Amino acid sequence: MTSTTTRAPRTESPASQIHYSEDFPAEHRRFVxxxxxxxxxxxxxxxxxxxxxAAERTAISxxxxxPLIRLAQxxxxxADMLRNAEETPVPLDEDLAHLRRTDSHGTHPETTATLDxxxxxxxxxxxxxxxxxxxDPAGGAPFEIVVDRDNGRVAIDGRAGPKIGGADDFVSARAxxxxxxxxxxxxxxxxxxxxxxxxxxSVGAGFGGDxxxxxxxxxxxxxxxxxxxxxxxKRWRKRxxxxxxxxxxxxGFGPGATIDVFWTMRPGNTYxxxxxxxxxxxxxxGLGNTWSQSSIVANLIFMSLFR
Length: 307
Description:
The protein contains 2 helices and 15 strands. The chain is an alpha+beta fold.
């Protein structure tokens, strides 16, 4: 059984996990491990840049609202209203029970998928050569993550907000599958992956706070563990502030946008071609409850390579 399920306490040390098929060549593992580490470093750096830019906006907003917040806290009636607001149940996607769904009637904009199968196309199906999962070490661990290589399915529930069992500030987590490739001659390659996703988010912001939720799927390629190409299908991004609340569910699985990744393969090198899913949940606290939940289940059905 190759299914991995993790529901981690918020104090867990940051970690990545990789599991291989029984016949995966030992000499290729170091390239896989290097590629996953590169994923973590690239994503963490991008997240840090984005959070640094957003921190200035948040600081300005909090400074502007600080006097109003102090006045609100001094008024007994307003203080009672704020306490009640903090105790109001948050509309969450409570667990990953929808991991077992098999319907394909979601509300995604894309309702059909075109598969480009032609002479010379290689198909990599379930189970893939390896599976991986990780989260940004600067943030918290995901509330729950399921990786099932036997069925090609990944589910991630990322939560930011202590009152919903999440991290203090943000969670950035990814998981997926990959294959290892080589060539005996130089050749141009194009990779794709057919996948469907079931998407959910819930965000709410207190007075002076904000919350952001994102999620999607992506393809990445590494040469000897070094990044060379990627393509992203962002399924959603939602940001709220100042007492706003928004909840979304796709109500089932739907195909993502077609994404391609292109690169040149050269003999003597080992390539790792990955398909993954990711979530991002961030909150900057305000007066009242502020939370973010990003939840996705993905069927990563097959990967195709034309060279």
